[in-house]
TrEMBL record:
This is Glyoxalase. Pfam families: Glyoxalase. It comes from Rhizobium wuzhouense. SUPFAM superfamilies: Glyoxalase/Bleomycin resistance protein/Dihydroxybiphenyl dioxygenase (SSF54593). InterPro entries: Glyas_Bleomycin-R_OHBP_Dase, Glyas_Fos-R_dOase_dom, VOC_core.
Amino acid sequence: MFTHIMIGSNDLARSKRFYDATFIALGGQPGETDARGRLIYLHNGGRLMITAPIDGKPASAANGGTIGILAANADEVRAWHDAGTANGGMSIETPPSLRPNGQFVAYLRDPDGNKLTVRSLPPEQD
């Protein structure tokens, strides 16, 4: 359905430190910068792009919005959360935890306030 998700940042260098660390924790690669200065992260078939707002106004986080990212397992979720909090992210909700639906889940706000979640799929049932 989606080709990409684009979010705004007020400090692309700060965002690059945060997102590089969190995507590396998930087994991904550091972001690339395109000709327009936008950061681009490719991971598991998805694309996240981060840019300074084109209207010149400050970036702001979506109220009620959450960006969900898939992790391979609970260890990746924990590593993502640790990397994010060590690189300017703010832990929100509960600590990384197993949910009743079998997913292991963590939440953070990035340095610009965007709400992110990483979750592993529940184990397959025999």
